[in-house]
């Protein structure tokens, strides 16, 4: 019976992911309804904490966007990338990583992709190289940022005070190693532009050839003027990040309110970190609006804010369905896999990676699979080391950041292969994830 249920689970995820948008969430609800109606499963608790975290964090990021803070951050990144264009294959991925790490979202990379494509093409560096690694770097930043929904979800699951600090201690240096090795892996990938038949064919068009002239290199940063409150918004956003890190590093300073355990209060009477993250981020959003005079109506119209609705519906549907399936089959799953993951903990990373590829959501994957890891007896340090595996969303080239990178590369070097999976992001993605997890295991053994 469990196999039939598992097929239904996978079918709902696959259909939902092909529908895009909120498709994953609504199909998850159909799967949940089937489980309850026909298999008489008891519904698991819905992921309320994760949904509230997503709502709070994305609202704050949208407020930063409305105040001009994201544009200001992008202008800084653009200046760094354009400063040494000949080394763009090395500079662009690390610049992208730190920008997304600070912002807590990979979607800010859309602003950098056309810059990376333009600079590399005019330097006759195959754009596929910096573009592919930069996209992967933007995803890895999600599993190291204290302002990402995925990291906050893992903090809630692990439920110990220094979890957010441990995520940063393990995942950030491990990701930097993974990005560096992936850059080396693609440094000579593909033909040089001057020998690429697709590019040479395009160069026969005088207009295209003129646009590829290095002497016509644009410098967008010279014309950019930050919005009046942009720098203040970035400062407030940065302070919110530091405050979250502070409470994670020094739990003695976490407010003690007494009372019994509840949604917001731990058993010892302290406010839990999940609630603190929600309070801090939404307070930061309020301060940005008040101090920079950013309209609340404008925040609600930002692309990041509208994307939050999609994320909330998707996480609610697929996580609730998956949690119900695992609750009903917990004994079978534990009996089948516990011995394997006890001896070879790294094998759990495969489940994380594949679920990430199916759901296209790091937060949904974290909330769906990580509790199973705890149930199977995998230690917190090992779960932290494997956390970056949730970035399997590059496996199938349908994720928006991958599609955008392909579209922005006018040379045609960044592409999807004949067999779909042999696309430009496969090699840097697999290398980066594998190295990041490997280094994560080493660091977790040393630091935790």
Automatic annotation (TrEMBL):
Keyword Cell membrane carried by entry: yes
Superkingdom classification of source: Bacteria
Protein's cellular compartments: Cell inner membrane
Transmembrane segments: 6-38, 50-70, 90-113, 167-186, 232-253, 273-292, 304-323, 343-360, 372-390, 425-447
One Pfam family of this chain: DcuA_DcuB
Keyword Ion transport in annotation: no
InterPro entries per UniProt: Anaer_Dcu_memb_transpt (IPR004668)
Membrane topology note: Multi-pass membrane protein
Entries under PANTHER family matching the protein: ANAEROBIC C4-DICARBOXYLATE TRANSPORTER DCUB
Stated family: Belongs to the DcuA/DcuB transporter (TC 2.A.13.1) family.
Name of the protein this chain belongs to: Anaerobic C4-dicarboxylate transporter family protein
Species in which this protein is naturally found: Sphingobacterium anhuiense
